Amino acid sequence: MGTLYQSPTISTSPKIIQDLKVTIHDSITIFPPQETKTEAGSMFLSNIDQVLNFNVETVHFFVANPQFPPPLVAEKLKSALSKALVPYGFLAGRLRLNPESRRFEFDCNGAGAQFVVGSSEFELGEIGNLVYPNPGFKQLVVKSYDNLDIVDRPLCILQCGGFAIGVATNHATFDGISFKIFLENLASLAADKPLATAPCNDRHLLAARSPPHVQFDHPELLKIPEGIDLPNPTVFDCQDELDFKIFNLTSKDITHLKQKAKDEPIPTRAKVTGFNVVAAHVWRCKALSSGTDYDPDRVSTILYAVDIRSRLNLPHSFAGNAVLSAYASAPCKEIEKSPFSKLVELMTEGASRMTGEYARSVIDWGEVNKGFPAGEFLISSWWRLGFTDVEYPWGKPRYSCPVVYHRKDIILLFPDIVGESDNEVNVLVALPSKEMAKFEALFHKFLA
């Protein structure tokens, strides 16, 4: 059970083309339509937005549509992006640090978003397995912000090519749900239709209470001592010298894990969902493979995102970061010996803990303290965000994926190719070689 895509150093790895030979034909700044240009000013960013000051890059691949040749697609996207900068005025602004409040905010100065048109010498079918994290995919997202000061970096860069759209945004602009809504609106505008969903841009909805009221302990948050700056990025750093592998869980594997949890004594609070069983399985493997020496008393903590819109009665269209890190913790000896259903229960409890009151306490904690989420590792799930469901005039994406930067402390979940195995999930793991060997052995052992 469980298919393994090997790392690039192994001869059985998928054949990929790392240099996509991308040529940039045009690079322009897109502004909102002059007659409806967004009024200048600053936009408040919540305490959740404050710690997400890093760029997120995604690539969306399409099968060629003869009715929409690349020049026409580029023109429609350019027009759509300009129109989108009216309801999403902050995307035409810049991120800045307010010298008085020492908080990040959006300066809605109308400086514009960047739009780039490029082409590759290769067709979609020639670049290899889209699921496999091809280093060449980085060429499909413009890096023009790398050498710019933060106040000069565009908050949105869209690169259009013959078979792919690359998007780079600062994470402070969107979470996964609001980014999908943005893509749906972009697609609708490209089809000369109204917005699919009007965004809610009022980030004061997630402002801290006055005075702040931290009513829970928050072991999932790490306080930074006075005088020490936050790391950049503020959550997890990239690391070199790591092997990476993709573990594919088929729908049969996921059903097997669910049944495994159901066949054991389950507390009534446990929810045997696809995400919970996959995350519990990955947690067990990661916890027991970490470090050079196994310490049964070491406590392992997994972090995973929970959408708080419904918990705080926010509009679904809230355009910002409305996710917080839930957590589950246990000593390694319990993770190793406990029934699988116990780990599923702990995952369930982590999400259930995130009530509206708890979410407000986390936000207020960020008002009182300088810090960020901290755990042994974070599961970042792109599995069911639904980017491939977005209907553009030229069709839905064949595949959508993040541009992957290997991090030991982040494990990615992402779907398989559309139409091939919609119920499967791919688990991207990056670890030092010895830990990877342990993780792989445990992955298959506990899947049996």
Automatic annotation (TrEMBL):
GO terms for molecular function: acyltransferase activity, transferring groups other than amino-acyl groups. It comes from the Eukaryota. Pfam families: Transferase. InterPro entries: CAT-like_dom_sf (IPR023213), Plant_Fungal_Acyltransferase (IPR050317). Transmembrane segments: none annotated. PANTHER family: ACYLTRANSFERASE GLAUCE, TRICHOTHECENE 3-O-ACETYLTRANSFERASE. Belongs to the plant acyltransferase family. This is Chloramphenicol acetyltransferase-like domain-containing protein. It comes from Cynara cardunculus var. scolymus.
